[in-house]
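@here heads up, posting the sequence + SMILES for the S-adenosylmethionine run so it's all in one place. Ping me if the SMILES looks off, I pulled it from an old spreadsheet.
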Amino acid sequence: MSEQVIDQVGEYYDDIGELVELVGGNLHVGYWESDEDDTPFLAAMQRLTTEVGALLAPRKGERVLDIGCGVGEPAVRLAQRYAITITGITVSHWQVAESARRVIAAGLRGRVATRYADAGAQPFPDAVFDAALAFDSLPSAQDKAQWLREVHRVLRPGGRFVFTEYPRTAELTAAERDILTANTIHHPPATLDESIALAEAAGFRVTDAHDWSERVHRTYDEFFTALAEQTPALAEEYGAERVAMFTEGITTMFSLCRAKIGYHAIACEKPV
Ligand SMILES: C[S@@+](CC[C@H](N)C(=O)[O-])C[C@H]1O[C@@H](n2cnc3c(N)ncnc32)[C@H](O)[C@@H]1O
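bot reply: prediction finished. Complex structure tokens:
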């Protein structure tokens, strides 16, 4: 990925910064089984981490790479659930610092570590990880093939990989594509087959693939409700101007996502 794009992504997440508190550190969508499922918003977000973790099925002692780890919330949750070590990478300096704070607070020093690194040019030797996760981060890749080649390189033969994608569920106008790009989302696939083909082209064997669009769809309305409820407190804490700018940008983006963006979860492995 070009340095300009990496800086843009980094600044985007640095700017969100502390406002990540609104989503409990979960920079991904929520997961509900059905319309009748009354799981509250934050629990639904944690639930998606559980579902993605189950797809990855980490085994005791494995070394796991979390590509685009956000503030480390999913990594902390997975390290609490599974006896593994996790290395997270992100291109947001703010997230690296916040992640370190959360790891220490969770008592996971030595089990989870986060560093600044580009997924498209990873600073790791070949075949050092047993499993890898790209949880709502591959959509940020301008060159998805390069990211996936890098994941393939750093996984050992037989290593497993789970990634999620934000497919388009309807045609996008040029203006809508611009909104996605401004929010660091590039080249949304059109179908589940397209997401699968991305992995296969990088040399992976796909073992499981889900279209969870219906299951995550409630995220956007739930987010708008939480934001409206918390706006006065957030404005007091972080300043009315900052919160208003955030609200404007995220409302444009999430309104588009609610109308035209779905969700894929793909599990695959690097052949032996
Ligand atoms: C939507 S957030 C998801 C965060 C986290 N996986 C979660 O579920 O909370 C996307 C993440 O991908 C990271 N990211 C985007 N482009 C990246 C790149 N080129 N290299 C490493 N991380 C990247 C961002 O910094 C951010 O942490």
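MO: The domain at 3-269 is CATH 3.40.50.150 (Rossmann fold).
MO: One more: Residues 23 and 112 are 21 Å apart (CA to CA).
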